[in-house]
Amino acid sequence: MVKIAVLASGSGSNAERLIRHFAGHAHGQVIVVGCDRPDAGVLQRAWELGTPTFLFTSKELREGRVRKELEQLGVDLIILAGFLRLIPDDLVHAFPGRIVNIHPALLPKFGGKGMYGRHVHEAVLAAGEPESGITVHLVNEHYD
After folding, report:
1. Report field, pTM of the whole predicted structure over 0.85
2. Is 119 an annotated catalytic residue?
């Protein structure tokens, strides 16, 4: 079974869908949700679904605490679901090809600073785009 960690910073709607999708799944399961904001709704959603959580600061992310925690849990795959921090190189190198980001618009057109959550959708509408989509990509050292 693939052990999945979800990292999120916001309300957790995508994290909830991932937890529900993999619940009881023979091939993979979300075993933990990590969050960098103590007031984020994702913590409550995960708790209500019985999924363990851990909270960390930006400093702890940069200094390797998150990497150590995920390695100790035996995590195989990390999914970024509305996670708003740059993933440090040590985490990228510890999980090569095993960190996936879900971005709520087509990159690179609607990426970069401030392009998260509803801000992305507002930008797409303001640009008059006839269509939109999502981007799911492997994470590397570059910020989307």
Report:
1. yes
2. no
